[in-house]
Design brief:
Number of helices: 1
Shape: globular
Radius of gyration: 19 Å
Number of domains: 2
Strand content: 35-45%
Largest sheet: 8 strands, parallel
Number of strands: 25
Structural class: mainly beta
Helix content: under 10%
Bound molecules: calcium ion
Amino acid sequence: MGSTPNKTTVKKFNREGGGAISLDDTAGTTIDNCIFENNETVDSGGAILGAPVSLTNCLFTGNIGQRGGGALCYTGTDFLAINACTFGHNSSAASTGGAVFCPESCSLDIDNSLIYGNFPEQILTSSGTVTASFSNIQDRPYDGSGVIDADPLYTNVPLETTFANSPGTTTTLVLGHKTTTISPDYIIEIGDDGIARTVTAVVSGDEITFVPALDEPAPEGIRVDIWGENAIDLDLDIDFQAGSPCIDAANGDTAPELDLLGLARYDDPDVANTGSGECDYVDIGCFEYQGQHPMVARSNKD
Ligand SMILES: [Ca+2]
Ligand SMILES: [Ca+2]
Ligand SMILES: [Ca+2]
């Protein structure tokens, strides 16, 4: 197991062609210990467009790639290793890879990673191979040692994160590709502004009205979080809770020594170790549960 250097956060970028980062196909880039949060693009790759060779200990959440690859559009034709990463609540247009989109034939190797709750689906590859181990992948088409498909029990997530697919007004929105059926009284959040707005009517299809009004008409492409009924806390929190099936379920021989936050591995006494390796209690994904939420444990350490 290797060590974990400092983490980097890449947040709220909005660019054409790779919301946060565009990489040359031949760059041979490795990306470690990085948080990609709430980046978006009208093109492909809400956080990253390009062909990194590896992603390790990275978190991708709330990213939107409208054309494909809510978090990552991998444009390479080679091999991408994803290790100890979490992809949760990223979005793309219908059937173009809510988390990861690979338009070319390539090989993906997914280890110790959590890919769950991305919209409308998780991974889309045009062709090529995907192998996986000790990972939690929703609707997994990939069989591998230690691969599960089970609700990770995220701490606080909306029902869905989507975007407006045409310009709205100060009190109306037309939503793109959503899979959630919206009812009046649902709480939505527009542009991640922290303001709870209440749906007053579902006008037709994907058009809704809401209160209170925006200051400016909603532009095409603006992010919309559908929080559902009675939502109060509108902060996306992709940590997982006690009892998560991700706890003590990864492979300590291949996972990094420390988690994304620099926390040591923790053997949860309440959870049987279903992982592998010399240290068989490493958690799946980029966070290590500490008997309390990793974010809380991290802030207590500071
Ligand atoms: Ca929010
Ligand atoms: Ca653990
Ligand atoms: Ca345990």
